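Z., the sequence and structure:
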Amino acid sequence: MRIIIRASVSAVAVVALAVPPAARAETQQRGDRGVRVDTLESGRIVISNPDLPATGPQGAPTLVEVLRIGSLDDTCDALDRVISLAVDGDGLIYAADWRADEIQVFSPRGECVRTIGRSGEGPGEFGMLAGIVWQPPGYLWAMDAGENRLTVFDPLGTVLATHRLQLGPAASLPWWMRVDADDRLHFWRPDLDRILMYGPGPGLDSLGSFPVPQAPPSVTDTEQIGRGGSTLFVQRSIPYSSPRVRWTVNPDGNVWLASTNEFALHETTYSGDTLRTVRLDRPLPRLEGQERDSVADAAGIPARRLPSHKYALENIRTSPDGWVWVETEKGAIQAWEVFDERGYHVGRVASPVPIEKEPHPIFGNGMVTGVTLGEFDVPYIVQLRIVRGG
């Protein structure tokens, strides 16, 4: 079977994210710490945050490493290619290994508990394990991109349900799946170009869908290369040339959307209504100096072809308390810009260790769970406790 791997999934057209400036309603109010809150005629609420170190009521939280799982030895906690993570209500940590096609299970103290699944085509086996997600009260969903199916396990690894899907030749590593506060599963369907919402439980009872149009194509640089009597034309994408669209689902089951070329987040329902826009009044960072030369060298293009600015943001995540965690840099995550459940910017939250973007870090149980690379690029699962300010 031919599978096309997509590194990421784009969302609605960038132009659809703009806030019409002339549509402000007459009623406006001033939030505390300089945060401006406006209500548009459409009913959309716009929260505009000043770019200050911390504007929340208690300042920005801090992150403290409390657990590290991994080994240089060939032992049960040795990690290979972790593609996806999940954490259940009891604190068990599930790590999906793409190469081994198995799910490693660890206790809240980091002890090896069991493995779930293996390579194969039978029930509970995987042709290409692409992602996992935990759904309360006791369902571990696993996406098999090789067999085009979803398998539902209990915490002990017993198969509860298997769902065959007709997804076409596209896949995503890691596969995009989320569970909201009402235990509904949100799942990307590449064959439909939509996110589908399914009801709680091991079945697939569709409750709604959200369109996922393609982002604009990247601008490319074409280089003509002569080899002997032949001429080759090589096309390379120009970094930062076209805005991307990032999205995730919040605990209410609504979709957060953001264009990478401005610091604005848009909360949208499955029916397409934008409830609020959260802004950070921060200009686009400039792309200049040694960084500009380094980006050009890595892309294999002249530095003059690069735009003058980088993206405002790289990705967005949500935590069960309704907070939004925004990644702003390429490469491993050094810090997040964090907004509370009201949309107020609480500040920049630094990580004590660099967190890899893949697998996606998981927020829950007052923790951030992700993967960091140690010596010799050995992967470790780490948990960072979120300590609120004040």
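The first strand starts at residue 4 and ends at 6. The two ends are 55 Å apart (CA to CA).

Let me know what you think.
H.
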